[in-house]
From TrEMBL:
Protein name: NADH-quinone oxidoreductase subunit J
A Gene Ontology cellular-component term: plasma membrane
Annotated EC: 7.1.1.-
Similarity comment text for this entry: Belongs to the complex I subunit 6 family.
Compositionally skewed regions (Basic and acidic residues) per UniProt: 275-285
Reactions mediated catalytically: a quinone + NADH + 5 H(+)(in) = a quinol + NAD(+) + 4 H(+)(out)
Length: 285
């Protein structure tokens, strides 16, 4: 079954590695190796990235690159499965988990499990060795009986369907159940239970009046800060009718950090500005 990714003369040789001239075969191999290097670099960035959203994007790039590699090797069914299942459904699940955990969550300092990095490095080396051995066993000897098995099954896709839903159906269902359990486990781990019950509106009102009776705390909202022409209202206290400052109009932290400015001085400056404006208007008249 021939597969064509695009009608362009540049991409067409990539889809015909098994058939065609030797020039197109070499051109397809060169592009395949270049794409493989980019895929490996994206996979390394995915592992080393400390941002969850960045790791998810690198993983998506790896999956799409793998799909293009399948297309180069004339495997249209695996190409479509890679796009629909992995780059589609699996990535949606990953992004869903990232959104629950938090896109801005960074990797914590140090290893939460002692020896985690060493174990991860050893497992990665073991996977590299196993993958290299498997690839060498597949690529070095010529495949025997592949055409016969495909012809007896009625084609490549019907043969895959018989293996997945007949011979290996139990393993396939166990794998699907494992993915569901992983998604449910992620949801359970990200749930945040309240340590105490949220007070009702009546309980909050009673607590405010109780604090007023015991400590004299104002039950109302905090009064607004002063507004002057030369300053904003966040660092300047409001003035009472007698000209004194109302300290409760701004937070106590500003007084403690000495960031609060005197409202009386700004009021005098404002009055001087008004007098200057009145004098200027009188001269114009």
């Amino acid at each position: 079954m021939a597969f064509t990714l695009a009608s362009s003369t540049t991409i067409a040789p990539m889809m015909t590695l098994a058939a065609g001239s030797s020039a197109s075969h070499i051109w397809g191999q060169v592009l395949s190796w270049m794409l493989a290097i980019v895929i490996v670099a994206a996979a390394v960035c995915m592992v080393l990235s400390r941002k969850l959203i960045h790791s998810a994007l690198y993983l998506l790039f790896v999956m799409i690159g793998m799909a293009i590699e399948y297309a180069i090797l004339q495997a249209p069914f695996v190409f479509v499965v890679q796009i629909v299942v992995y780059a589609g459904a699996i990535m949606v699940m990953f992004l869903f988990i990232v959104m629950m955990v938090g896109a801005n969550a960074d990797a914590g300092k140090g290893d939460p499990i002692p020896g985690q990095r060493i174990a991860a490095i050893l497992m990665a080396l073991a996977m590299i060795i196993i993958t290299a051995v498997a690839v060498s066993l597949v690529t070095w000897p010529d495949p025997v009986g592949l055409d016969k098995a495909t012809h007896s099954a009625g084609g490549n896709i019907p043969g895959l369907g018989q293996l997945i839903f007949n011979k290996y159906v139990i393993i396939f269902e166990v794998l699907s159940a494992l993915l569901i359990v992983a998604a449910v486990g992620a949801i359970v781990l990200t749930l945040r239970t309240r340590s105490k019950k949220r007070p009702s509106q009546r309980e909050t009102m009673e607590a405010r009046f109780r604090a007023y009776a015991e400590k004299g705390t104002d039950v109302g909202a905090m009064p607004g800060a002063g507004v002057y022409a030369a300053s904003n209202a966040m660092d300047v206290p409001a003035l009472l009718p007698d000209g004194t400052e109302l300290h409760s109009s701004i937070s106590d932290e500003m007084y403690e950090s000495r960031e609060a400015r005197s409202g009386q001085e700004l009021a005098e400056q404002t009055q001087q500005h008004y007098k200057a404006l009145d004098k200027h208007e009188g001269e114009d008249e």
